[in-house]
Amino acid sequence: MPTIQSSTSCSIPCNLCGSVEVETVRSQDRHGQPLRSVICCDCGLVWTDPRPSADRVRHFYEREYRSSYKGTYQPQPKHAFRAGKVAVDRFAQIRGLLSPGMKVLDVGAGSGEVVYVVRAMGYDATGFEPNEGYALYAAQVLKVPVWQAFYQDAKVAPESQDFVTLFHALEHLEDPYDAIVRFRTWLRSGGLLFIEVPNSEATCQQPHSQFHLGHLYHFNLPALEALGCRAGFEVIKRATSEDGGNISVVLRKTDTGAPSNPRIPGNFRRVSSILRRHTAFRHALSRHPYVRPFRKLAARIEERREANGSRSGRELLDKLIYQHLGSR
């Protein structure tokens, strides 16, 4: 059963409000290995503490992350089809925010499918990805302008972008606030930042699988919005996925100062209460553990059918774009 343990010791102050008053929400990762996750008692942000060294984190994402999660150095056809479907859905999320001539930058671009789809739909999209194998795949197989870099090293000219997107990337970063501040410098006046991350309030997955080595931070909507506002943005749109597993915000760059006190009254109690009540027993009483296997099975059958044969990643993407977006 998940437990919230009182604690006042943390090695990393809260990235949102700077507090060092925390409680432990989990002590193991999804594989049962030791991994301490804590929640800020002032704003409700959740993070991994302690954390591996900066060099270890960088090596993990550059060399190990994709192999660890996908079991491959570069995408196989089934991965390309799966990522292509996700990319089409992600384009649908941002389509209404795009205007002709916009320059779009995808941060944590993976194997480049989002960049490919956005470019296929007529926009000037580029991206960067820290993982070596996936960045090479994007550039060499999909032939899109995706380069290998961490955001700290990315060569992006100030005020050169109209739209920056992060699809399930912010939760992997060691300093989300620093990252958003940097993204702000890349955006022109009034530019947009789209962020999608897993929801720390989600109860659609097994309780033991919520926390793992790859995710350094966990946000709910109030925490994510507050982080964006602290970095000099205003929230213009917010959304939660149908199953509650993901949240997203659209932020607009402002010229006004950031609030001095990003604490969020009541958010700690809200998030910790949800985590405390999200037990294996309660999960078993919900629809999620029974619907998910059938959806996964249907998806895997479709992937196997579409990936069989000699279709390249580009061919698979072109077919998906034509079927769902009416282009190519």
Structure described in brief:
With 328 residues, the protein is an alpha/beta fold. The chain is built from 10 helices and 12 strands.
Note the main sheet: 7 strands, mixed
Radius of gyration: 20 Å
Note poorly predicted spans: none
Number of strands: 12
State the end-to-end distance: 51 Å
Instruction: Encode the helix/strand succession as letters.
Output: EEEEHHEHEHEEHEEHEEHHHH
Beta fraction of the residues? 15-25%
Strand order of the largest sheet: 7-6-5-8-9-12-11
Task: Choose one word for the global shape.
Answer: globular
Q: Output mean pLDDT.
A: 90
Structural class: alpha/beta
So how many helices? 10
How much helix is in the residues?
25-40%
List keywords for this structure.
single chain; 5-stranded antiparallel sheet; 10 helices; globular
Would you mind describing this structure in some detail?
This protein is α/β, with parallel strands linked by helices and 328 residues long. Helices cover 37% and strands 21% of the residues. It contains 10 helices and 12 strands. The chain has helices at 54-70, 77-94, 113-120, 132-140, 176-186, 221-230, 267-277, 280-284, 288-307, 313-325, and strands at residues 5-6, 22-28, 34-40, 46-48, 103-107, 124-129, 146-148, 161-167, 187-198, 217-218, 233-240, 246-253. The strands form 2 sheets. A 7-stranded mixed beta sheet has the order 7-6-5-8-9-12-11, with helices on both faces. A 5-stranded antiparallel beta sheet has the order 1-2-3-4-10, with helices on one face. β3 and β4 (46-48) form a beta hairpin. α2 (77-94) crosses α3 and α2 (77-94) crosses α9. The longest helix is centred in the last third of the chain and has 20 residues, at 288-307. The radius of gyration is 20 Å and the shape is globular.
